[in-house]
C-alpha cells in the first residue's frame, strides 16, 4: 500500500514530508542524546531482516495465496518506537530508491502511513498498555492476540492515511466512500495475515530468548515511556491533516463546502466558476499534433541514447 | 513484493551502474538530489488532466541516463514491474470522471481517461527519476549528499548499514529456504508454523550478528559516527548542472512546449 508520487499533489506531499521529517529529526536527536551507539548496528541489521523476511512467504490456509510480514510492529517491539521509526524510514527509502515502491515525494507520506502510525500510535497506545496489563509472564495466546490486534489497527490507520492523502490530492477521481470501502476491508485482511505472522514470530522468539523480552532487556525499550512523543506526534498528525486540507482547497478544482452551500442557498455561484477544464489539457489540434511530435522526439532521443550505449559497450572490450 | 529475489538482483545492476566513472557519477551528489527533487516537484505540480504538457519532461530522465551511461532497459523493466498501486487507483478514474472533453475533429473523450493517462505519465517520470538518481550516484555517495544537505546522522548511518546488510541477510534467508526445500519442504509458501520457526532462527541470528558487528565497530574505534572515505566539493560543473536543470524545468513548467511545437508545425503545413 505504498502511496505513489503519481497520486499526490505537491501541497499534500510536502505537508506529509514535513510531518515525517520533523519526526525523523526528533527521533534521531533523542537517540543521539541518549548515547545509544549500540542501537546503530542493531537497527541496521533488524531493518535488513525485515527485507529478508519479506522474501520468504507463508501460505494462508484455505486460500492458496501467500503473505509476509510488514515489519513496523516487530521493529517497535524489538527496538522501541523511535529507533523503529528510523529503521522503518530507512526501509521505505531503500524501497523507494531501489524497488520503485512509491516515490521520493510520496516517501514522506509513506513514512507517515507505515512508520509513524505503527511505531508511534499502534505500539505505544495499543501494544504496550495491553502487554503491561498482561503482566510479566503473559501466555502465548495473549501475546499472539495483542500483537495481531496492534498490527491490524496500525495497518488500518495506514490505509486510512493513504485514502486521506489521495482524496486531499485530488488526482484520483475515486469518491471518498468508495475508496474507504475498497481500502479498509482489504487492509483488514492483509493486517490479519501480517498480524498472525508477526505474532507467530514474536511468540517463537519469546520462547527461544525470554531474556530479550524481560523488562528493559533490549536497548531502546529502556528509555522513558513513549507517552510524551505520542501526544505531540498526534498533534503533528492532526496539524498535517488540517494543513493538507487547507492547502488542497487552493489546489482543488471543485468548489469547497462553503462555496457549494452558498451557491445552493443563493442559487448562484459566489465565485466565477471557470469553464471546465480550467487549464488547457492539450486537446486542441495544436496540442495533439505537438504532443505526438514531442512523444516521437522523446522516443527518438531514447533510441539514440540506447544505440550509443550499445556502441560504447561494443567498443570497450 | 513477491519477486524480491529478482528485485534484489536488479539492485546489483543498479549498483554496478553507479560504480562506473561517468559524467553523471562525477557530479556532487547534492546537485543530483536537488535536481531530481525539483524535477519530481515540477511533474506533480501539473494539472491533473495534463498529458502532452508533461511529455517534454521525459528528456530529463533520458538526459540522466545518457550522462550516467545507465542502461535504459533495466530502468524501464523496473518501472514496469514496480508496485502498480497508482495505476490500480488510476484505473477507476474513467468510471468516476465521465465528463466529456472535446478533442480536435469533433471527437470526444472521457475526462477520466485523460487523468488516467496523466497518472501513467507521472508514474513513469517520477519512478524513473528516483531509480536514475540512485543508479547514477550510488547509495553511499547519495547518503553523504543527504548528510551534507542536513539529513540526521542517525538516519544516514541506518541507511548505510541497511544497504550493506540487506544483501547479507537476504542471502542467508535464501540459503535457509533452499536448505528447507532440499529436505522436502515447499519452495514457495511455507506452512505458518514452519515459516515462524525458520524466520525466528533468522531473527535470532540477526540479533547475534548485530552484537558481533557492534563489538567489531567498537574495536575499530567507533564513537557514534561512521567515517566518510571520500570528500565531495561543490565546483562550477555542479552549479552549471543545477542551473541548466532549473532552466529546463522552469521552461517546461511555464511554456506548453508541445502546444507551441504543434502550432509551429501546423503553420508550416499551412
Overall description:
The complex is a heterodimer of chains A (about 325) and B (about 270). Chain A has helices at about 10-35, 40-55, 70-80, 80-100, 105-135, 140-170, 175-210, 210-215, 225-250, 255-265, 285-315; strands at about 60, 65. By secondary structure, chain A is mainly alpha-helical. Chain A folds into 2 domains: about 5-250, Arp2/3 complex 21 kDa subunit ARPC3, CATH 1.10.1760; about 285-315. In chain A, helix 1 crosses helix 5 and helix 1 (about 10-35) packs antiparallel against helix 9. Chain B has 13 helices and 2 strands; from the N terminus they run αααααααββαααααα. Chain B has about 270 residues and is an all-alpha fold. The termini of chain B are far apart. In chain B, strand 1 and strand 2 form a beta hairpin. Chain B has helices at about 5-20, 25, 30-45, 60-70, 70-80, 85-90, 95, 110-135, 140-150, 155-180, 190-220, 235-255, 255-270, and strands at about 100, 110. In chain B, helix 1 (about 5-20) crosses helix 8. Classes of the chains: A mainly alpha (about 325), B mainly alpha (about 270). The interface between A and B is large, with 109 and 133 residues.
Amino acid at each position: 500500500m505504498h502511496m505513489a508520487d503519481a497520486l499526490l499533489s505537491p501541497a499534500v506531499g510536502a505537508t506529509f514530508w514535513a510531518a515525517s521529517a520533523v519526526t525523523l529529526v526528533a527521533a534521531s536527536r533523542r537517540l543521539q542524546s541518549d548515547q545509544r551507539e549500540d542501537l546503530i548496528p542493531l537497527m541496521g541489521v533488524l531493518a535488513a531482516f525485515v527485507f529478508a523476511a519479506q522474501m520468504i512467504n507463508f501460505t494462508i490456509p484455505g486460500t492458496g495465496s501467500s503473505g509476509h510480514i510488514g515489519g513496523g510492529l516487530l521493529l517497535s517491539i524489538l527496538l522501541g518506537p523511535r529507533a523503529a521509526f528510523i529503521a522503518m524510514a530507512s526501509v521505505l527509502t531503500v524501497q523507494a530508491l531501489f524497488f520503485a515502491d512509491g516515490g521520493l515525494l510520496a516517501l514522506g507520506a509513506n513514512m507517515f502511513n507505515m512508520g509513524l502510525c505503527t511505531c508511534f500510535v499502534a505500539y505505544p497506545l495499543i501494544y504496550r498498555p495491553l502487554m503491561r496489563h498482561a503482566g510479566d509472564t503473559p501466555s502465548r495466546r495473549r501475546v499472539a492476540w495483542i500483537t495481531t490486534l496492534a498490527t491490524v489497527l496500525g495497518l488500518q490507520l495506514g490505509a486510512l492515511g493513504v485514502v486521506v492523502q489521495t482524496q486531499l490530492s485530488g488526482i484520483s477521481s475515486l469518491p471518498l466512500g468508495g475508496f474507504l470501502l475498497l481500502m479498509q476491508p482489504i487492509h483488514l485482511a492483509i493486517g490479519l495475515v501480517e498480524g498472525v505472522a508477526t505474532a507467530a514470530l514474536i511468540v517463537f522468539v519469546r520462547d527461544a530468548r525470554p531474556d530479550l523480552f524481560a523488562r528493559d532487556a533490549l536497548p531502546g525499550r529502556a528509555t522513558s515511556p513513549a507517552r510524551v512523543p505520542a501526544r505531540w506526534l498526534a498533534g503533528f498528525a492532526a496539524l498535517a491533516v488540517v494543513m493538507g486540507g487547507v492547502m488542497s482547497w487552493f489546489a482543488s478544482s471543485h468548489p469547497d463546502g462553503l462555496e457549494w452551500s452558498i451557491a445552493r442557498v443563493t442559487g448562484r455561484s459566489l465565485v466565477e466558476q471557470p469553464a471546465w477544464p480550467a487549464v488547457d489539457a492539450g486537446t486542441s489540434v495544436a496540442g495533439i499534433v505537438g504532443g505526438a511530435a514531442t512523444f516521437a522526439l522523446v522516443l527518438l532521443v531514447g533510441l539514440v541514447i540506447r544505440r550509443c550505449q550499445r556502441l560504447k559497450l561494443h567498443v570497450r572490450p | 513484493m513477491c519477486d524480491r529475489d529478482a528485485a534484489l538482483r536488479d539492485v546489483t545492476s543498479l549498483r554496478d551502474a553507479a560504480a562506473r566513472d561517468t559524467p553523471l557519477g562525477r557530479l556532487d551528489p547534492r546537485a543530483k538530489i536537488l535536481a531530481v527533487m525539483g524535477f519530481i516537484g515540477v511533474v506533480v505540480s501539473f494539472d491533473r488532466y495534463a498529458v502532452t504538457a508533461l511529455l517534454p519532461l521525459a528528456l530529463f530522465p533520458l538526459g540522466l541516463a545518457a550522462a550516467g551511461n545507465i542502461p535504459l532497459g533495466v530502468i524501464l523493466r523496473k518501472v514496469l514491474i514496480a508496485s502498480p498501486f497508482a495505476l490500480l487507483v488510476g484505473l477507476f478514474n474513467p468510471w468516476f470522471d465521465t465528463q466529456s472533453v472535446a478533442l480536435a475533429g469533433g471527437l470526444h473523450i472521457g475526462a477520466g481517461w485523460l487523468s488516467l493517462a496523466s497518472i501513467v505519465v507521472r508514474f513513469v517520470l517520477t519512478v524513473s527519476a528516483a531509480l536514475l538518481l540512485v543508479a547514477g550516484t550510488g547509495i553511499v555517495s547519495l547518503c553523504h549528499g543527504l548528510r551534507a544537505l542536513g539529513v540526521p546522522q542517525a538516519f544516514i548511518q541506518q541507511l548505510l548499514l541497511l544497504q550493506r546488510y540487506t544483501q547479507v541477510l537476504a542471502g542467508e534467508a535464501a540459503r535457509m529456504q533452499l536448505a528447507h526445500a532440499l529436505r522436502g519442504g515447499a519452495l514457495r509458501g511455507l506452512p505458518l508454523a514452519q515459516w515462524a520457526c525458520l524466520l525466528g532462527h533468522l531473527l535470532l541470528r540477526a540479533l547475534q550478528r548485530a552484537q558481533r558487528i557492534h563489538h567489531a565497530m567498537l574495536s575499530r574505534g567507533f564513537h557514534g559516527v561512521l567515517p566518510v572515505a571520500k570528500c565531495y566539493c561543490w565546483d562550477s560543473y555542479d552549479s552549471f548542472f543545477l542551473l541548466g536543470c532549473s532552466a529546463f524545468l522552469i521552461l517546461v513548467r511555464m511554456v506548453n512546449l508541445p502546444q507551441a511545437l504543434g502550432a509551429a508545425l501546423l503553420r508550416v503545413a499551412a
